[in-house]
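Protocol step 6 of 9: fold each sequence in the batch and record its structure tokens directly after the sequence line. For illustration, a two-sequence batch is reproduced in full.

Sequence one:
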Amino acid sequence: MIEFTAASCLFEIRVNDNPMITLNLKGQMSTKIPVNHGISKTGPLEISIKVLPVLGETFLTTTSFLEYDISLFDVSTGFEEVEQIGNYKTTQVQDNTSVSLITDTKLYTATVPYKMNAHWENGLDIADIKDLNSRLRNTFNNIIDTIKKRDYSTYQEIITQKEYNISTSMYLTQRESQARIKRLIRDFENGYNVLEFPENVVPITSAYGKKVTLKRLDGDPALSYGNIEEQEQIMLDLEFYWSKESNKFEVI
């Protein structure tokens, strides 16, 4: 788990170059999130952070900061903290200085009792894919069309690898994993429609150049669904790798 506090910045936290959270924060917040989905197997645990000014600003301010603690929890019989692995806090930005970026990377070791299907490791380097943006948009549009047609069996096939890795890393039972998908399909059935898939999005690579997705400028996923009556919104945060076997993008 990573417990962090941040204020007055646009920040990103990555684990093994997998984005855990990206947030544009004008105020201050604190929370704790699991990061197992960024750890595919026992081995290196790289924590990297990037801190930028809030959108619309040029420089960080004296109130801008990010700090975190990363800890190991035992969830076999409850939720017990076993060990604090590491921590970090940005140095305070001094007044009358022009700081526009703070970065830091720390390396630890993670020991986990599972191994994901890390198919992306054998995928094509994202930098070598021609017409990346158009191919990504076409892939997203195919997923949108699948949901519009209510072809949920095909949608489940599309996200099979993603769901397997989530359930494996988060220790979900098969019943819990199936319930996750059923809840999402129920939302689609109960009035959640595509709110927008904006033109102004950018490709964001991860996993050391092996994964990619499209994000909005504020860091939110490109694809969102919402229920206008309920005034609720769902972000579909989908990452892709280029499979050399199928010669196309696949959700991972």
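Sequence two, same batch, same settings:
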Amino acid sequence: MQYYPIPENLIPYVESIWSFESPDHMDYGEQAAIIPSGRWILIWNYIGEYQHVIQNQSFYHSRYDLHLVGQHTTKILLKGDVPVSSIGISFKPYGYYSMGENDLPNYINKVVSISKKKLDGTEALTSFSGNIQESVTELTKLLEERINYKPDNRVVQICDQINAHKGCILIKDLFADMHISQRQLNKLFKSQTGITPKQYASIIRFQEIYNLYVRNSQSENKHELYDLFYDESHFLLSFRKILRLRPNIFLRKPNKLGNEFIKK
């Protein structure tokens, strides 16, 4: 993956801008399984066609489709013929809310196509010139036109605290210094991120241990399971819930492609 500078207007909302080129040939048995990240991701594929599969539901993308990958609470499988090349924007958990979206909870575990129409009525990203930077610029300008809202500072603060604690923080402690009920904060957080603080914390906690222990099969990190989970049974329960497999079965097959999207 290659990363690009974030325009100043998008810095409060965007975590990274990247391009990805799949290999020409896939390893036998490649799973191409992506775990939840707690982020909204906008993708424009300029070479090839592919599909996201979430909970046995397929979302197909023809070439030049601009699509939003919503928050997901279980793995995503990538399927399609290689090669596929795409440009992506990973939003901060609350970042896509700034584009004027007010029904984010309805996008959970879904992928939806997004309009490429600009304010002047013309359409962006209808072809690929061969210059990736030109397409990145075209995509970011399209997004800059759509900024309508700023996320609530309390939502930003909750995300920052969860990230700082790697997901290991009690929900009551998140809300301790905020003069608003837990119910209201949960509702506010969900409206601007799509999920609850508890769900977000679980995703971040699992992602941390996946990167430490599973992604590179680094068994020497296994003791760190207990820093992020109560015990190994707690970890196994989370693993099966997200990846639908036990770790020893999952690790028997390659996941090179999926792991490219798990690095932080």
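Proceed to step 7 once all outputs are recorded. Observation for sequence two: The CA atoms of residues 52 and 78 lie 5 Å apart.
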